[in-house]
Design a protein that fits this description.
alpha/beta, Rossmann fold, six-stranded mixed beta sheet, four-stranded antiparallel beta sheet, binds adenosine-5'-triphosphate, binds magnesium ion, ATP-binding, ATP hydrolysis activity, ATP-binding cassette domain-containing protein, ABC_transporter-like_ATP-bd
């Protein structure tokens, strides 16, 4: 086990952003002067190696989803670079772009808004193969992926509203797996689900990562959820990565104020549950 961890650290990153700054233009307050900008990511570097599961935590508005959009190529950074397999995704040809889009897939927070309500599940699952122009036996691939997420084939003829949130998130994960990606980016994948089914979806993600040898970027507010699924966690605050560490070290010896706040929030909840809350 240790050996594997050591080897992982010697391997170059599979997906990496280096010194990325992202700004958004805000509306002008007056007619005179420059248009104000909001810096959402400030020289952020972040990476994941092959087969590695890394986490990203931070308070609401700290820039996590913006980082997801940059890592998946949905947005181009104003400054800095994104590399997949060592190659700049914004500086290649169409073939490099297609390979990148196929290899890095995302699971969003709300499966209800990420699946088209008017489309049968079967068609939704096929959609990534069509848009990425991936050839092969599509039906066999759909069946294989349904097995991997523990859903039956009967799901294919049904519509999203016929499923629970947990089942829909399994389907959204299945759709992300369809193009056989190398990296899965999960942005708060369980925070919209009932607490009782969160663990099932987390276990599914963990199993998939180890069985398929995928890399995982797991994003959440909650340090304990990330600690359960990943081996290295970055803490983000106001558009900057303020601390990186192993989950246990972050819990026991948090250095940055943002990390201490996240740990404190968990301890407060636990104290509350145990009836020891101060208030
Ligand atoms: N397209 C945009 N234009 C202007 N501001 C934006 C845009 N997208 C995001 N922002 C701002 O950037 C900041 C970071 O947003 P982001 O969604 O990345 O945070 P987050 O960490 O994912 O938050 P949450 O935990 O609530 O999901 C916020 O202040 C947000 O209002
Ligand atoms: Mg977000």
């Amino acid at each position: 086990m240790n050996r594997r961890v050591d080897e992982t650290h010697l391997t170059p990153p599979l997906l990496e952003m280096r010194q990325v700054t992202q700004t958004y233009a805000l509306s002008r307050k007056s007619l005179i002067g420059a248009r104000p900008t909001l810096t959402v990511l400030d020289k952020v570097s972040f990476d994941v190696r092959p087969g590695e599961a890394v986490g990203l935590v931070g308070e609401s508005g700290s820039g996590k989803t913006t980082l997801t959009r940059i890592l998946t190529g949905m947005e181009k950074p104003k400054q800095g670079h994104v590399f997949y397999n060592g190659a700049d995704i914004w500086a290649g040809d169409a073939e490099r772009w297609r390979n990148f889009r196929r290899s890095v897939q995302v699971v969003m927070q709300s499966p209800r808004s990420s699946l088209d309500p008017r489309m049968r599940i079967g068609l939704s699952l096929l959609e990534p193969l069509r848009s990425l122009r991936i050839e092969g036996d599509h039906v066999a691939r759909v069946h294989e992926v349904l097995d991997q997420v523990g859903m039956s084939r009967q799901a294919l003829e049904r519509y999203p509203h016929e499923f629970s949130g947990g089942q829909l998130q399994r389907i959204a994960i299945a759709r992300a797996l369809m193009p056989a990606p190398k990296v899965l980016i999960a942005d708060e994948p369980v925070s919209a689900l009932d607490v009782s089914i969160q663990a099932q979806v987390l276990n599914l993600l963990k199993d998939l990562i180890s069985e398929l040898g995928l890399s995982l970027v797991f994003i959440a507010h909650d340090l304990s959820v990330v600690a359960y699924t990943t081996s290295r966690v970055s803490v983000m605050s106001a558009g900057k990565i303020v601390e990186v560490g192993k989950p246990l070290d972050l819990f026991t010896r948090p250095q940055a104020e943002a990390t201490r706040n996240l740990v404190g929030a968990i301890l407060t909840v636990e104290a509350g549950l145990a009836g020891n809350a101060l208030a």
